[in-house]
Amino acid sequence: MTPVAAPVDLSKLKRIKRELVAPPFVHEHEQVAPGEPRIVEFEMPIIEKEIQVADDAWLQGMTFNGSIPGPLMVVHQDDYVELTLINPAENMMQHNIDFHAATGALGGGALTLVSPGERTVLRFKATRPGTFVYHCAPGGPMIPWHVVSGMVGAIMILPREGLSDHKGNPVTYDKVFYVGENDFYIPKDENGNYKRFEDVAESYPETEELMNGLIPSHVVFNGAVGALTGENAMTAKVGDRVLIVHSQGNRDTRPHLIGGHGDLVWEAGKFNNVPDRDLETWFIRGGSAGAALYEFLQPGIYAYVNHNLIEAVNLGATAHFKVEGDWNNDLMEQVVAPTEIVG
């Protein structure tokens, strides 16, 4: 597509550059817009590489910025997002980017198709506040394959005045984490072992056959089984208000924080809508991103799971929050420790 229109004069707008970081972390940003709309510049290379998904499973992955999911971008409503998308010469595939937050040209996908050795720059106005998915969509069967190979991320467009609760009162967060959920389809050999391929092109025929059966081999957070557990657990302190942005580019999912709740939940991810309150489990539609705010009240390990517990326990969709602080017996107390039953 070659759009034909008069150029827009944005020369008076301030430009800022943001350095993207790998999830679950999020780049530096203000929660309340500091002034007039700005042009926010991002640069993102596309990296094709093999990724270890589990102890016995490797994925020929395709990534934005080298991570699965791609990094969370944060701007404010009415800012302009200006993305330099780079497809290095050593890659094998064509790629592009479709922003669900953008208007026109297949979300920018029709204007950003780059072959290996090419770069492109896309600018769009962030007109709607909320959390939105972006993903690669190069056309035809390449679209689902690129998505289930890792090419999906999210952008958060904050209201200029920041977030608000159900009564319209200002809400802030102490920390923000981005959890991207992925379904992977890694073929097995005749002995039941996961196959390992030489490159991304070699992996395609068998991966396509498996993914068309709609039964994933793995359902994971942030690219791998255990990627957000143990030493990689997300951390907080008692009293911290934590915003969790959760995306799924391909399938429906049901986030649940074991031992906690969603104090405020923008289930569909759109900040113009009044948030739901006190949810135990919320629903993220495939191809969308949602946001939940929770104030941690007790210390310990909190499991954050897809509450299809088969996918959480058996396929890998589990993360941990490690929270420091003092225990509150008023909220929960072990009145009698487990003891032997006598008589």
Structure notes:
Pathway: Nitrogen metabolism; nitrate reduction (denitrification); dinitrogen from nitrate: step 2/4. It comes from Maritimibacter alkaliphilus HTCC2654. One of its GO terms (molecular function) is copper ion binding. Residues 54-161, 177-326 form the Plastocyanin-like domain. Homotrimer. The protein is built from three helices and 21 strands. The protein is mainly beta and 343 residues long. The termini are far apart. Strand 10 (163-164) and strand 11 (170-171) form a beta hairpin. Helices cover 7% and strands 37% of the residues. It has two domains: 21-160, Cupredoxins -  blue copper proteins (Immunoglobulin-like), CATH 2.60.40; 176-324, Immunoglobulin-like (Sandwich), CATH 2.60.40. The mean pLDDT is 96. It has a six-stranded mixed sheet with strand order 13-12-15-19-17-18. Strands 1, 2, 3, 5 and 7 form a five-stranded mixed sheet that branches.
Helical fraction equals under 10%
Low-confidence stretches: none
Record field, number of beta strands: 21
On the 0-100 scale, what is the average pLDDT? 96
> Over the alpha carbons, how many angstroms does the gyration radius reach?
21 Å
Molecular shape: flat
Query: If you consult CATH, what is the topology of the largest domain?
Result: Immunoglobulin-like
- In sequence order, what are the helices and strands, one letter per element? EEEEEEEEHEEEEHEEEEEEEEHE
Q: How many alpha or pi helices? A: 3
Q: Can you name the CATH architecture of the largest domain?
A: Sandwich
The largest sheet has its strands arranged as 13-12-15-19-17-18
CATH superfamily of the largest domain: Cupredoxins -  blue copper proteins
Number of domains: 2
Q: Quaternary state, please?
A: single chain
Structural class: mainly beta
Subcellular location: Periplasm
GO cellular component, one term: periplasmic space
Domain Plastocyanin-like: 54-161, 177-326
Cofactor: FAD; Cu(+); Cu(2+)
